Amino acid sequence: MSKWQPIETAPKMRKIIVHYLNPLGQSRTVMACFYTAKSLEMDSTCDDGSGEYDEASGYCYAPAGWYEEHDSDDPILPLQGEPDHWMPLPKPPKRIAVSAPEGRK
Fold it and tell me: Cβ(34)–Cβ(66) under 8 Å?
């Protein structure tokens, strides 16, 4: 079983589970990733000053930092606090073969 580890030991550019306190001081545990500079392309332009424009590629990149990960089409957003601990994601469960009910195939 994985144990919480200090955030200083966390890998970068890999989804992990992190713990942090949000601005209201409440404990949050989420799946997140630390993205390095010019590694997370933004959907929007850099006009609002929130990203870094790369003239060579013509893309706008999010600043380096921790971002909450999820499995949806919504944009990835920065964490609302600094993580203090992390642990690796667990391995997915093994698939169990399910047989079809009698008479069905």
Answer: yes
Q: Which residues of the chain have pLDDT under 70?
A: 1, 44-45, 99-105
- E strand spans, the chain: 5-6, 16-21, 27-35, 52-54, 59-61, 65-68, 85-88
| Gap between the terminal Cα atoms of the chain | 39
Query: How many whole angstroms separate alpha carbon 69 and alpha carbon 12?
Result: 13
**pTM for this one?**
0.77
Do 99 and 26 meet the contact criterion of CB atoms below 8 Å apart?
no
Q: At 76, list the tokens.
A: 């990835």
